[in-house]
Amino acid sequence: MRKTTKLALAFVALAGAVGTTAYAENNASAKIREGMMMRLNKAMSDSDGTITFDQFSDAMDARLKKLVADNGGKLTVAQLADALEKARFERMAKRIIARYDSKGDGTLTTDDITSREKKVFAMLDRNNDGKIEKSELPKGDRFGRHRKSDDDGNGGDMQ
To answer: Could you tell me the keywords of this UniProt record (predicted)?
Structure first.
């Protein structure tokens, strides 16, 4: 396999992982609000359409309260950061495994990775000659994201 092909495949794998991370970080606050509203709506639907402070409190930050309780009633910055980092990376790991897991068994194998790479390679090899040429690579800054020209000629905003 030529060095440029290896580099292209490595780029594809890296772009997928980085893209997932960037997307997750950009939507974090919206997801937090959405989760909060879902918990409040559930609490209201479980009662008569109103909730007490205790029901509100239970619905809001049950995981945070559990972390505090699990750590003797006090939670340090380091403990919270570790828990948040672990949760974030677990979500990322689930998305990556879901993307690559060809058998649907929740595990990642070398065969799964190779299968995914073959699919991406086939997608990029538009003329089906078994090689990816520079002209076959997506244009733009990232896969699926292209620059749009604007009137002032500075390249425009990302699409």
So the answer is: Signal
Cβ contacts of residue 46 below 8 Å, gap of 6+? none
CB within 8 Å of 147: residues ≥ 6 apart: 140, 141, 155, 156, 158, 159
Instruction: Give CA–CA dist 79/51, Å, rounded.
Output: 31
DSSP assignment string, 62-115: HHHHHHHHHTTT---HHHHHHHHHHHHHHHHHHHHHHHH-SSSSS---HHHHHH
The single residue listed with the structure tokens 């594809």 is 12
From the number of C-beta atoms within 10 Å of its C-beta (0-12, 13-18, 19+), residue 55 rates as: middle
* Rounded Cα gap, residues 139 and 155, in angstroms: 13
pLDDT digits (tens, 9 = 90+) for 51-78: 888 888 888 778 888 899 999 999 999 9
